[in-house]
């Protein structure tokens, strides 16, 4: 069933880069090579869905599929003496991915840097110290995911909140599964009303379809999408307090390291740079983000130099009180900050997965499938029905290729319809664990606690929130529809 749905999505996916290519390139939609590439992508995505069972990282099959698809395209276009056209299409698709990847690279580096400085451990310690019940933890982690994801993006927010739940409720499998579902719904909903909250909203903003502040029209619909399922699920929680062990007592004493809050401030300054650069001088947001990476590297240089001095002073002080034969005095001074450590800890598998999916979709689009689907989808149905349907499709396949396809086709949407497709693709993926990057990531992080079937149990409740959020948007934002 999932593979059949993937095939339908895949056919839809085929129209992206081809919105321009179909008129100048070769129509390969009815060729053996075209159908082979379609089947290859279906198989690759089936492997992605089975990641939990096969323990095969999701980036590997889509990377292989992307490479083979573009090799086939290159070979066919070379036979028709149009190799330059294929090369241009590949470079265009690669450039679009590069902008997204660099944007995410900076955002994730900042999150990892704040994690290294102990900001999130201090948060975990505070939550343990307060002695919240499971129901309170369910709501607190959900609300934090909803309000953090607009800044930190839904993927990294979900990973952080999941780490908190895994630490506090280590042996409560049913509760952890429910919390993971709630966190995914909250993070995806929170990410839908901010250009920084999800890759799909970032794509829409970078493409100039929706202004920065217009995204906030989706705040109430997004809140409805999170709050309604959470309210229903909370009734099924055993409202007791988690058991504390010795490690929990240790976590209660944790504090953040020097530089935690300055790095948080620099992250906000980086976001401001990206927004102002896009609004005032019409440069891609990635320019402001890369400038923000320079902020972190310069401040990291200061932290490292100061840390080296502090470490030497501490070691000298310790040596004055330790026996001369003790070559490894123990100090409480943390190791100096190294900005390349947060870079190394990025979710590279996820970033490479995005590359594979976008390049696969770009290749299929260049073959002509996206034009074929766009004509049947938006030509035969209203924009509202089509956009709601695409949100349902994003529950089966990641919302990134779905949004990438829509943007490349560039339909004649009103601001309200662009907001609707942003909302539906952003929160529609919450209905299944494989429908969003946050869900796929948590299946790996909380393996043994959170699974595809564990999420599927709550899909009807999440779908109720999906429908309610759409009606909220259509009602509240009727003037721009």
UniProtKB/TrEMBL annotation:
A Gene Ontology term for the protein's cellular component: membrane
Keyword Iron-sulfur among record annotations: no
Main location: membrane
Subcellular localization: Membrane
Highest taxon of the lineage: Bacteria
GO terms of molecular function: antiporter activity
Span of domain Citrate transporter-like: 45-291, 343-426
Coiled-coil segments: none
GO terms for biological process, alphabetical: sodium ion transport
Signal peptide location: 1-21
Keyword Disulfide bond tagged: no
Membrane topology value: Multi-pass membrane protein
Annotated InterPro entries: Cit_transptr-like_dom, NhaD-like
Residue ranges crossing the lipid bilayer per the database entry: 31-50, 62-78, 90-111, 132-152, 212-238, 259-280, 286-303, 351-372, 384-406, 418-438, 458-476
Keywords (A to Z) from UniProt: Antiport, Ion transport, Membrane, Signal, Sodium, Sodium transport, Transmembrane, Transmembrane helix, Transport
Similarity annotation: Belongs to the NhaD Na(+)/H(+) (TC 2.A.62) antiporter family.
Protein name: Sodium:proton antiporter
